[in-house]
Amino acid sequence: MKLWGGRFAEGASELLERFNNSLPFDWRLWEEDIEGSIAHGTMLAEVGILTADEGERLVEALQEIREEIHKGERKFDFSVEDIHTQIEIWLVEKCGDLGKKLHTARSRNDQVALDLRLYTKKSLKKIGELLKELVKTLAELGRDNAGTIAPGYTHLQKAQPISYGHQLLAYAEMFLRDLDRLQDAYKRCDVLPLGSGALAGVPYKIDRERTKELLGFGSVSRNSIDAVSDRDFVCDCLYACSMIMVHLSRLAEELVIYSSFEFGFIELSDRYSTGSSIMPQKKNPDVPELIRGKTGRVCGDLLGLLVTLKGLPLAYNKDMQEDKEAFFDAVDTTQICLEIITPVLQTMKIKGDKMAEAAETGYLNATDLADFLVQKGVPFRSAHEIVGKVVQLGIEQGLEITEIPLEKLQAISPLIDREVLEKLGAKECVARRDVYGGTAEIQVASAAEAVLEALAEAEF
């Protein structure tokens, strides 16, 4: 069965069937297609385009089909062109010619736009819930590790001592922004396209506001041409997924590095690690490595769709069939990565002693020494130069700043005294960053609570 065969004298070639058919991937929209069809049929009956009896019979048949698919009693025929055709075939089997009436006042163009919007809305909500659980985990870990001293890095070189909780909360902030992006994408997705027809609207007195209410949309599309050709909402979703994956990849990279023997700051649970087939001692961080690797796929899905849409004339074009495989892949990948990273974080062992030990070496307190000199009236640029010489001396002699004999330090600057040196421990350096947004323990604990409060207010 084709929904368009009347104009053609010859049947489609087998090659065209294989090339053109989308059911092998758009079958996933079956529930949305039925949901939209039930709402459409209900509305058609309410406005008198169908009789009340016809509307009731169609809705009952669609509900039966939905239940039969859930129970596994109906199998998709992948030789059928698309999900819309498949559902209509089953509907006609149940209702005869009445099943053919359901397509009154709609086109596959506005039908697929509807199905995809419904699926996207559900996907955004699902990803949002997974993201909220991740942010909650990071906020709680940040709060619990507010007093855990660790080395902070720039350029992957030791920079200044920080609270490890502060670093975990940096990721929480990233994912909170991602949550905001999901909410923003949801608002633009929450527009009903059904009733736009193929591109010009429909000549029937339908009630689009009623359809909107039945399907739970926030608004109705204003322009029928735009409604059937718009895939911005898919791009919005893919961009949000791409940013989530980029942030997950940064976190994953850190987990890989921090769990290495050379760093040893964390240990991943055996439940989320793998071994080697030849090296018995290995414990590999495969989960974060896979997340890091899958990020490229999701970013590629976004780029692929953007290029597909580039230059398309209005309104609908078959090119737009290519939106779904990229979309499904990005959503699936993002969801599984979010699902697994949260328990990885919840079960990892944080080695605070190893972090604190690492924070005491590598001249992380150099900036604090410069700040002490500034407090004694030395211009910061001059203080920077003085401390640079101190660090150079320490490197030459293999000593940390506090291990260099006082007389040698005072030969560089007489303003360096024993009292200053006693305040250069990593814990003291962290505690001095007691400013809003800083790494002092009290600020980190407060920031963790603020993240949890923001999370509680994040709703779709």
Structure, explained:
The structure is a single chain. The strands form three sheets. Strands 1-2 form a two-stranded antiparallel ribbon. The chain folds into three domains: 5-104, Fumarase/aspartase (N-terminal domain) (Fumarase C, Chain B, domain 1), CATH 1.10.275; 109-204 and 215-358, Fumarase C, Chain A, domain 2; 366-424, Ribonucleotide Reductase Protein R1, domain 1 (Orthogonal Bundle). The protein has 20 helices and six strands. With 460 residues, it is mostly helical. Helix 3 (30-46) crosses helix 7 (108-144) and helix 3 crosses helix 9 (208-215).
What integer value in Å does the Rg equal? 30 Å
Number of domains: 3
Identify the CATH homologous superfamily of the largest domain.
Fumarase/aspartase (Central domain)
What is the name of the CATH topology of the largest domain? Fumarase C, Chain A, domain 2
**Outline type:** elongated
CATH level 1 class label of the largest domain? Mainly Alpha
In short:
The chain has 460 residues and is mostly helical. It contains 20 helices and 6 strands.
Characteristic key phrases:
6 strands; two-stranded parallel sheet; elongated; 20 helices; mainly alpha; Fumarase C, Chain B, domain 1; Fumarase C, Chain A, domain 2; 460 residues; Ribonucleotide Reductase Protein R1, domain 1; 3 domains; two-stranded antiparallel ribbon
What's the helix and strand layout?
Blueprint: H1 14-20, H2 23-26, H3 30-46, H4 52-70, H5 83-95, H6 98-101, H7 108-144, E1 149-154, E2 157-163, H8 164-189, E3 191-192, H9 208-215, E4 219-220, H10 224-229, H11 232-258, E5 266-267, H12 286-309, H13 323-347, E6 349-350, H14 352-359, H15 366-375, H16 380-397, H17 406-412, H18 418-421, H19 426-431, H20 441-457
Parallel strand pairs: 3-4
Antiparallel strand pairs: 1-2, 5-6
